[in-house]
Amino acid sequence: MPVRTVLLGQGTCCISAGAKQISAALREEIARLDLAGTVQVKHTGCRGFSQIDPVVIIEPEGLLYSEVKVDDAPEIARSLLPQGQPIERLFYRDPVTDRAIPHHRDITFYNKQQRTVLKNCGYIDPEEIDDYLAVGGYQALRKVLSEMTPEQVIEAVKRSGLRGLGGGGFPAGRKWEACRRVPGDEKYVVCNADEGDPGAFQDRSVLEGDPHSVVEGMIIAGYAVGATKGYVYVRAEYPLAVKRLGIAIAEARERGFLGENVLGNGFGFDIEIFQGAGAFVCGESTALTLSLEGARGMPKPLPRPRTTEVGLWGRPTLLNNVKTFANIRWIINKGAEWFASQGTEKSKGTAIFSLTGKITNCGLIEVPMGITLREIIFDIGGGVPGGRTFKAVQTGGPSGGVLPEGLLGTPIDFDSLTAAGSMMGSGGMVVVDEDTCMVDLARYFLDFTQKESCGQCSLCRLGSVQMLEILNAITEGNGRIEDIDLLIELGESVKIGSICGLGQSAPNPVLSTIRYFREEYESHILEKKCPARVCKGLISYIIVSDKCKACMICLRKCPVEAIKGGKKEVHVIDQDKCTRCGVCLSVCPERFGAVEIIPGREVKIHG
Amino acid sequence: MEQIALTINDRQLSASSGMTILEVAKENSIDIPALCYRQELSPIGACRICVVEVERSETLVGSCHTPIAQGMVIHTHSKKVLQVRKTMVELLLASHCGNCFMCDKANICELRSIATDLEVGLPRFQVKKRYYPVEDASPFIVRDLTKCILCRRCVSACNEIKKEKVFGIAYRGFDSKVVVDFDQPIDKDVCRDCDVCISFCPTGALSKHGEIGEEKKGEPLIISG
What we know:
The complex is a heterodimer of chains A (607) and B (225).
Chain A: E1 4-9, H1 12-16, H2 19-32, E2 39-44, E3 56-59, E4 63-65, H3 73-79, E5 92-93, E6 100-101, H4 108-111, H5 129-134, H6 139-147, H7 150-160, H8 172-181, E7 188-193, H9 202-209, H10 211-225, E8 229-235, H11 239-254, E9 270-276, H12 285-292, E10 317-321, H13 322-334, H14 336-340, E11 350-357, E12 363-368, H15 373-380, E13 390-395, E14 402-404, H16 414-419, E15 428-433, H17 438-452, H18 458-475, H19 482-497, H20 501-505, H21 508-527, E16 539-543, H22 553-557, E17 563-566, E18 569-573, H23 583-587, E19 595-599
Parallel strand pairs in A: 1-2, 7-8, 7-10, 8-9, 11-15
Antiparallel strand pairs in A: 1-3, 3-4, 5-6, 11-12, 13-14, 13-15, 16-19, 17-18
Helix pairs in contact in A: 2-3, 6-10, 6-13, 7-8, 7-10, 9-10, 9-11, 10-13, 17-18, 17-21, 18-19, 19-21
Chain B: E1 3-8, E2 11-16, H1 21-27, E3 51-54, E4 61-62, E5 73-75, H2 79-94, H3 110-117, E6 142-143, H4 153-160, E7 167-170, E8 177-180, H5 196-200, E9 206-207
């Protein structure tokens, strides 16, 4: 009987940090030390703290070793010997206090979170159904099939107040009820796992770390709405998620949770995986449906029949996000009232965010609805690293808005974020600091959405491109002051005139940065300066004369020979020749630090 | 048939259920411009020129595909609507080739006439055109995608009237394009001389082979204002 368990995250993020090699090395060492009888190495999904991957956790002590390397494997194995001691040098160090923290439960990144959907991620082996069963898996399904009518299930979901976690926030119970009510002997349940936002990885993590929770949620949904077939529409770019989900479905089928006679109850349900071809717009319900049918994914104009009425192959279809399905088992097991007691009045339960950007603790977090942005960024996220100043946070993926420091008190819920000019969206959260140019940021996100436009409606297809052209002109120093109003006018038109959510939200990053950071746009246009020193056309590289040691390094490396000077002669950059490639800055020895970037096009020769 | 009471531009109207806003407006001599809509085809909803304001709706709705509902209050020419409509035409013109002098359909061009009606002059945006070679290998049809505004009438007309599927849409964003097969130039093998799509094309993107010096179709477009 194993005394200790070594948990090793094997999500895509962990593997890219080398978790596979560590696992192999650790297993080898454990076998060599003849510990196999007392120590069990278990592969799990990702624990979310991507910043310190790969992570090794020793249970039952709850020790966490961060940023483990293959070479650490022998030492970790030795520490597992009866006389072994914890390895202090591998403990996580708090970035603020620099104190070593041995136990994962004491790490601020974890202890402020409330993990429901992600509870099992990082604890159970996603490829072993017995692991899931050991933590109460499929209990909800048993309960539903033996004790509840479909109406009672729907009633429970309604009472829980669960809202669709794909971004829209439509009450899940009402959707289920609508689908149940539509007559039809053939209905479908579709799980939307087409997570296309740059910087969002929560659906992937759930599918990689706890695929059975999604499968269980879908089966319950099938029972509730009267469907016999389920599809998971998942991105083909998530091969590991597809693989683990496939294993989960096969295992569930083997154990009788899926099939013609689920748990001997007479109810039949099966799930198939469909891999999307990589179009961002296919996250939209009608486009997703068309794509599943094999057609080009293009949203249908509103008002159209709801997917719950006319969905996949014209049949009533229930479409929910991965996280929505993953919540179902908790609502059934712990009760709708328990679920409804969390979060805010109108947004219940938890929200999952992918915290990235200029943040100390980057990773996947799950927090109760109603927590403020400040708590997420500064408590869980540990604030902005490197002594820089926080500037703004962008929530909701590429079509979300950018919120400044003044709005950090905004509670996280569907309605508050929308009111502030952003949105919950897919749950991306990108933090930016003073070194980020807001015009450039807006340009970056719009560049993504305009490329992903399905090209159907003229406003989205052409409007977003023109907005991008204007932003390009501004960042290159060719902006005109009237461009700001033109951007607002175009943005508002695209927002109210487009067919689907993509067009209706694509201008958000531009409109919100103008709303909160207008002065940055004005500096770009009027002063021809990029205050954050990002936009190439609006910055200058200079050599600070009293720091320059005339070492000739930058002078030799400059690809356009723009640097003048010589031995014992302080170097000067010829601004007319300079292409602002940044080579001089990167080659100037750190101890001199003579090359600096300044906002604006400096024409005066220094020195 | 159930009668539905609604208000368009402060006029109390009544119409049969199942009709779209555009159809009711038309019946009551309210002119809503549209580029992709055609009576003979099922609504496409792509051009967005026909958008109208429906009270209590956050976004503007396409009148060609939105069915009327009891008590709807609609504004077809409010300031907001006209603003968005003008912006849209301006956007289309900014990416249109604008070679009207040479265009066979110049006088019967629907884009041109709507632009004139809405008093859209030179676009305030960067002119960003899509240039494609003229496809004239087929003896029946000349296709100049540089002039295409992606209204998709040709796609629908071919599907619905001719019951063929010659055209489809490919690529994304600004690069979206009406394609034949796997983006092949149109030639005599794929298309016969039915002319259906040509008659539906609102611009000069689809036309028949002409002779040099041939007179342009239609009366010269007189610009009012």
